[in-house]
Fold each of these.
Amino acid sequence: MILGADRLGSYRLDAEPDYQAHGQEIATFTAAYLERLPVMLKRPTGCGKTRFIEPMARRLGKPLITVAAHEDLPRTAATE
Ligand SMILES: Nc1ncnc2c1ncn2[C@@H]1O[C@H](COP(=O)(O)OP(=O)(O)OP(=O)(O)O)[C@@H](O)[C@H]1O
Ligand SMILES: [Mg+2]
């Protein structure tokens, strides 16, 4: 193992995602991140919740791992 290697490198976005921002959502999310506050996105399906996280992950230099939740996914698995 190489010390300091970015083991999550494959989960980092290389290019700026194609995303049309709405209102103050980027500033709001960034402020929450800087205060280490969790954010729950809650809007109708297909409105861009998952898409919004992509540019935020890139801006904040974070890897992005997407888990598609479904009714058989144990509740604890989503919160651990
Ligand atoms: N602001 C946006 N900028 C660019 N594309 C968008 C935007 N909002 C929605 N889209 C488009 O809508 C599609 C669905 O968005 P997304 O998958 O993020 O929805 P969602 O809110 O996560 O839905 P679900 O609740 O079903 O998970 C995206 O693949 C994208 O093509
Ligand atoms: Mg989604």
Amino acid sequence: MGNIAIRTVNLGKLFYLNQKKRGKLRETLEEKIRLSLKHLFTALSPDAKKNEKKHPFANKHIWALKNVSFEVKHGEAVGILGHNGAGKSVLLKILSQVTKPTEGYAEIHGRVGAMLEVGTGFHPELTGRENIYLSGAILGMTRREIKTKFDEIVEFSEIGDLLDMPIKYYSSGMQGRLAFAVAVHLEPEILLIDEVLAIEDISFKEKCLSKLKEIVREGRTVLFVSHNMDSLKTLCNRAILLERGKIVFDGDIKKAISKYLSGNPDAKL
Ligand SMILES: Nc1ncnc2c1ncn2[C@@H]1O[C@H](COP(=O)(O)OP(=O)(O)O)[C@@H](O)[C@H]1O
Ligand SMILES: [Mg+2]
């Protein structure tokens, strides 16, 4: 087991589509009335039931991931590819224990640093400074250890005066900057990076990429979600291609990219 950083076995994640993304399921009175009227209507009219079946959301659930099994060795840099909705972010959230799988399990051997979708990972009411300490504490670092990294994080993120403002007032780009800076500077053994898309500033993106290259060179384990094929090629030798929650390819980065760009998961390589 010593060589394995990440192992997932038959990971599956089921979502119910009436569950709001990010928010809690809040069944308001209005919603209750709307649903009961709908049920009444469906009961009275058999045609409505037929139409409902044809609707893509008719069964009201989606397997965001299904039977996802793979292994990543320590020191590997693996790209995660897939069109929107393929399950990339959900996979990273499971690996960083932000969310639990419905089926299967994931083993992680090492300290994880993660830059997830904007809005995940930070506490919105706490300031940037407090969130840096909180993230370090979650990683099991002492206050003193975090202190030694603190200035580097602030300097890298270029958030300046925002440091003592609650995160909820940050733009998504600024949250992304801080999340990236925290993830890479708190010395994770395994780094999970969801697309750096939220950061629109080109020169900052370049800075992130060169930092990632440095981390890969140091031999740390990286899982990197990106739609930028050039960055994927420079960082990773291997990629996992997801289509509608399933792994359709796992192997050489160039082959994965050509399969992804062909738009047809069954395309011959
Ligand atoms: N909290 C949620 N509630 C319901 N559906 C969700 C939730 N999170 C993700 N999904 C659905 O799961 C699928 C995979 O999402 P995601 O992992 O975000 O895709 P992407 O590959 O673009 O990152 C999508 O169909 C998405 O709508
Ligand atoms: Mg995503």
